[in-house]
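Review form for a predicted model. The reviewer records the input and the model, then writes brief findings.
Reviewer: anonymous (R2)
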Amino acid sequence: MACGGILSPRLLLLSGVGDGAALQALGIPVVHHLPGVGRNLMDHLDFILAYHIPADPNLLGISPTTAVQIPKWIRRWRAERRGMLASCFAEFNGFLRLSAGSPRPEIQYEFVVAIALDHGRRLVARHGISPHVLLLHPKSRGTVTLASPRVEDPPLIDPRYYDDPDDLVTHVAGVKRVAAMFRTPTFRHLIKDDLMTGHCGTDADWADVIRSHVGTNYHPVGTCRMGPGPDAVVDARLRVHGLHGLRVVDSSIMPTIPGGNTMAPSIMIGEKGADLIREDWHRATS
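Model under review:
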């Protein structure tokens, strides 16, 4: 099974594999009591800054500047297959330690070359840039559960962002550090308006705006955690504990969330899972 950090636990639960009491309450016959299914949900919390930088031809926006530049971008794309129409939009990534003694970066930042809040679902008629600030190692843990026994109904996802107060403290520090980059002489004279945090003075102000606008970076993992113990779902060979012939091979098996994007680790899990299945198949047939 490889349905991802949300849908893999959902499919197991619908199939009767999960917390027995919760399944019985929904009228789902219990195939195997495995309470860890759907627990341990982790994600990279994402807060998006936004700066109005007018008339910069290297940025995008719902603006006269973009309208003028579009014909040039089209010509360059046709001639060179380069330029703004070849952009991945998140043009710049970095990792940030909040103190010299930090053993690993707590923050990842991505500079998106347009003002696109809520991942593009909230468009702003301004020209500028949207830096994303991600909390890499959250302590909070969420859940994926069922709303009903109907396969047509979506699951209940409770990410429990900032359930551990240390997460908000760390995220505030990271957002403030990234925002400070845009108060340097290099950026200050370019920026006409800070659309998200211009009013922030105290840490309480920063915490309020971050908590109000934080969202997912689409990195849900951990809901079918690999390992021993009562909350684990699969073993070191990705086999579901207590069942025969069933593996979970996707990001949901991660015991902890990686300190960066989850795509490459998920590919690695798929490759390793394929190797394990192949090994067991040859062992069984030899």
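Findings: Residues 12 and 234 are 12 Å apart (CA to CA).
Further findings: Residues 263-285 form the longest helix (23 residues).
Recommendation: see findings above.
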